[in-house]
Design a protein that fits this description.
163 residues
Length: 163
């Protein structure tokens, strides 16, 4: 009986110090396009080659209303991870002058893609494997999307062709 109590005590301490597993890292905000809108609740980030310049590596942040973490972690390619997003936004971060982003809302029925730059990010943490801060992209004046989010996210997947 003592061994059983010790195991329970260790499990309780693990929950206290490690916390429960999260369905993605911390995120909140909104993605809007015309009358379509979603509330951001989850975030994930992957490392991949820049699709515009294979010599560069980017971080792609996924902001979603639903938990797509298992789908992203199971992917072997960037396009697979992209296809998991059906209600939210994905935004590239890196040192390129043009950073792509895409919005998919209402199960992918409403879509928009555009470009931004690093100024869209106001970061409080910028490390090779973690980004935290705020994101603001507003193309609504041109009939595009508006992405406004706060996030704290770590890399959850590296794709095979990344350095």
């Amino acid at each position: 009986m003592t061994a059983f109590r010790n195991i329970l005590a260790i499990q309780a301490l693990a929950l206290i110090f490690c916390g429960p597993a999260r369905a993605g890292d911390e995120a909140s905000g909104n993605v809007t396009m015309n009358t379509a809108k979603t509330v951001i609740r989850h975030a994930w980030m992957v490392r991949a080659r820049d699709e515009m310049d294979a010599q560069r590596t980017i971080l792609r942040v996924y902001l979603s209303s639903v938990d797509i973490g298992q789908d992203i972690k199971a992917c072997k390619t960037l396009s697979c991870a992209d296809s998991a997003l059906q209600d939210g936004a994905m935004v590239d971060y890196g040192d390129a002058s043009h950073l792509g982003y895409a919005v998919r809302l209402n199960g992918g029925k409403v879509q928009y893609s555009g470009g931004t730059d690093a100024d869209a990010f106001t970061l409080t943490t910028q490390a090779s494997d973690r980004l935290a801060g705020k994101l603001l992209i507003d193309d609504s004046g041109r009939g595009g999307a508006r992405v406004e989010a706060t996030f704290d996210v770590a890399v959850s997947n590296h794709f095979d062709d990344t350095p």
